[in-house]
Specification:
By secondary structure, the protein is mainly beta. About 15% of the residues lie in helices and about 45% in strands. It has helices at about 1-25, 30-35, 215-220, and strands at about 45, 50-55, 60-65, 70, 80-90, 100-115, 120-135, 155-170, 175-190, 200-210, 235-245, 260-265, 275-285, 295-305. Strands 1-3-5-6-7-8-9-10-11-12-13-14 form a twelve-stranded antiparallel β-barrel.
Length: about 300
């Protein structure tokens, strides 16, 4: 069984890499614009087990997020991007089940508002249409009509998201770039059972900083002059969010509405677009029908461009 699980990890890792390769292939014409815009895409990642916290024992959590760019080049300020995103959790139980995967396709229209002096500067605005479901059609509640059926219960919601994204080199730290993303999301169509308990609004503020360690060391004569994709990067990001709208048994001001995430990631120079990360998450469980609990977890894993916002 361990051999089978090892093979599964390898397959997921290769799928993650192929998602990165496809993203890069479709973005070659985008040059600097593509590079800047990609910094707030959602990452593909795989965690090692479930982490430490109030989450069930997992073999892994995987988020596969390929991107397909329809239009973006150095002479155009706008673009359209499609992403068929899938998230799944494999539970550390008999037969290692994968229960109620999340299906989250997204279509995004974005516009570059302001030109920058370099590819590290950019100001984008965007509008996305998103869907989130778990592929189940069972009853939402268990037989007691109170507890939620997290095994086969139906979960489905459609939403629109809009926001702005700003990137700028750090004036105080050499070879560092700061990123800010502000966004709002409205769930306009939900399964009937979700309408009074899920919360229709999400507001997020994301802050991120990324440092090119290879360039920093090179400035002190301690690193060779390698290509950009072979440089080492250290990144950290913070997300703060708030859930608005009706949530059962939760007041207007309540810690259960808060979402907080801190991520620190490192890309070694010998890896191309793959990073190692550690992350702490507090907030509503994002795995479809498990939303009713507040998740508190510290986890570790590897990701494709883990320096991206989620």
């Amino acid at each position: 069984m361990r051999y089978v699980l090892a093979k599964l990890y390898i397959i997921l890792f290769l799928v993650l890499l192929s998602a990165v390769a496809k993203s890069q292939e479709n973005g070659k014409g985008g040059d600097a614009y593509e590079s800047t815009f990609s910094m707030f895409r959602e990452p593909s990642y795989i965690t090692a087990l479930g982490g430490f916290g109030n989450i069930e024992p997992l073999m892994f959590e995987a988020d596969i997020v390929p991107y397909y760019m329809l239009s973006l080049n150095k002479n155009s300020r706008w673009g359209i991007e499609l992403s068929p995103r899938i998230m799944l959790r494999m539970y550390n139980e008999d037969s290692y089940p994968v229960r109620t995967p999340s299906f989250m396709p997204r279509a995004t229209f974005f516009y570059k508002v302001r030109e920058g002096n370099s590819h590290q500067q950019g100001f984008f605005t965007y509008l996305s249409w998103c869907h989130h479901s778990n592929g189940q059609n069972g009853s939402f509640y268990n037989n007691d009509s109170v507890t939620i059926n997290t095994q086969t219960g139906n979960f489905s919601t459609n939403m629109v998201e809009t926001g702005v994204f700003l990137s700028h080199p750090d004036r105080k730290v050499p070879y560092a770039v700061n990123y800010i993303k502000l966004s709002a999301c409205y769930h306009y169509h939900q399964a009937p059972e979700l309408r009074s308990i899920y919360g229709r609004w999400r507001f997020f503020s994301d802050f991120q900083s990324s440092v090119n360690l290879s360039k920093v060391l090179r400035a002190f004569g301690r690193s060779a002059n390698n290509p950009v994709n072979h440089n080492a990067f250290l990144s950290q990001s913070i997300r703060v969010g708030w859930i608005g709208g009706d949530i059962a048994k939760v007041g207007a001001i309540d810690a259960k509405r808060l979402i907080f995430r801190y991520t620190i990631s490192f890309k070694p120079s010998f890896l191309n677009d793959v990073t190692l990360f550690a992350q702490y998450y507090y907030g509503q469980d994002y795995y479809n029908i498990n939303f009713s609990r507040t998740l508190k977890v510290l986890r570790f894993g590897f990701a494709a461009k883990a320096s991206i916002f989620n």
